[in-house]
Amino acid sequence: MKNFSSSQSGIFNVRVAVAVVLCTFAAALGWLSFAANPPSGTITTAGPAVTWNGTSGTGAPTAGGESECAPDGSNCDTFSLTISGTPSDWATANKRVHVQINWLTPSSDYDMFIHRGDLTGPIVVESANGGTTQEQGDLDPTRPNIGTGLFTVHVV
To answer: Under a CB-based contact definition with an 8 Å cutoff, are residues 115 and 122 in contact?
Structure first.
């Protein structure tokens, strides 16, 4: 039987600890990679358009809508959209905010929900058409239930 000195077993313990820390860090980075890129944007009456790339889609698809997005980012995508200015700015400019998502395969059916505020806020736009490669909706900042501020686009 071969005995190891305490210094050799100590090095082994350090190596195991470092490996665990690195694996945990890599897993955390993996979860971060399933978010909208960029995660947020701001639009004004002067533009320009705001775009993002959804990076979710590696998890199992949801069949029951938003309630089955857990953890968010694995099978759903979230983008924070800030509409700046005041409702009167948007009325003067005679503009609305058009939100549209596109994908390539009709069999990958996505739905889009836009919440006022964060994901716990009320849904102000919903687009859930089947058999398409696009969902879209408009936000009218002049309407009292819309206004300006933070909106969360949730792609399911």
So the answer is: yes
